[in-house]
């Protein structure tokens, strides 16, 4: 098993999860995989060194059946201007 770190060390926390749905049970021995889609990236209005990314997570079992879906809001560091 590998841990996914889409933002590497730039992650600064999470304001929360939205639209969480459990579509099917996951059982011992199931093999699952995750598909992550970046839905939006919004710079912070008050802190120019960071922004919020909206990530749609979809988790599938070995039969490619959707077992879970959620939207994660992730606070991330921004690159310096011109860098």
Total strands: the figure is 4
What order do the strands of the largest sheet run in, or round the barrel if closed?
1-4-3-2
Name the CATH homologous superfamily.
Hotdog Thioesterase
Query: Helical region count?
Result: 0
First-to-last CA distance: 34 Å
Find the CATH topology: Thiol Ester Dehydrase, Chain A
Look at the helices and sheets and give the structural class. Answer: mainly beta
Largest sheet: 4 strands, antiparallel
- CATH first level: Alpha Beta
**CATH architecture annotation name:** Roll
The share of residues in extended strands comes to over 45%
Verbal overview:
By secondary structure, the protein is mostly beta strands. It has one domain (15-77): Thiol Ester Dehydrase, Chain A. Helix content is 0%, strand content 49%. The chain contains no helices and 4 strands. A 4-stranded antiparallel beta sheet has the order 1-4-3-2, with no helix packed on it. A hairpin with a 5-residue loop joins strand 3 (50-60) and strand 4 (66-77). The model has no long low-confidence stretch (mean pLDDT 85).
């Amino acid at each position: 098993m590998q841990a996914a770190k889409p933002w590497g060390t730039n992650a600064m926390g999470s304001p929360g999860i939205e639209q969480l749905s459990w579509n099917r049970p996951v059982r011992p021995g199931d093999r699952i995989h995750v598909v992550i889609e970046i839905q939006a990236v919004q710079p912070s209005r008050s802190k120019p060194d960071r922004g919020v990314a909206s990530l749609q997570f979809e988790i599938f079992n070995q039969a490619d059946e959707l077992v879970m879906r959620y939207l994660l809001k992730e606070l991330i560091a921004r690159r310096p201007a011109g860098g």
